[in-house]
Amino acid sequence: MGRLDGHLAVGDLVHLSLDTVRRAGLQRNHTGTHVLNYALRRVRTEADQKGSLVAPDRFRFDYSANVSWLCSKFLKIT
């Protein structure tokens, strides 16, 4: 996250700088949450995403499901 020193007004010019390595990691892991959600719902249709954390080097996927998981079903996703 950046920060602003001073004030902005309509018509002001601004300079944007991106950390492309960090951004690429965030993009990959954000996509990973969508892929995992899709795969999870194909195996367990009642599963529901409850949240996620997306960081440049990892992601966490929070979900709920009303049934016990069998190892074979879980391995289908991974």
Automatic annotation (TrEMBL):
Taxonomy, superkingdom: Eukaryota
Gene Ontology biological process: alanyl-tRNA aminoacylation
GO cellular component, one term: mitochondrion
GO function term, MF aspect, one: nucleotide binding
Listed PANTHER family: ALANINE--TRNA LIGASE, CYTOPLASMIC, ALANYL-TRNA SYNTHETASE
Protein name per UniProt: Alanyl-transfer RNA synthetases family profile domain-containing protein
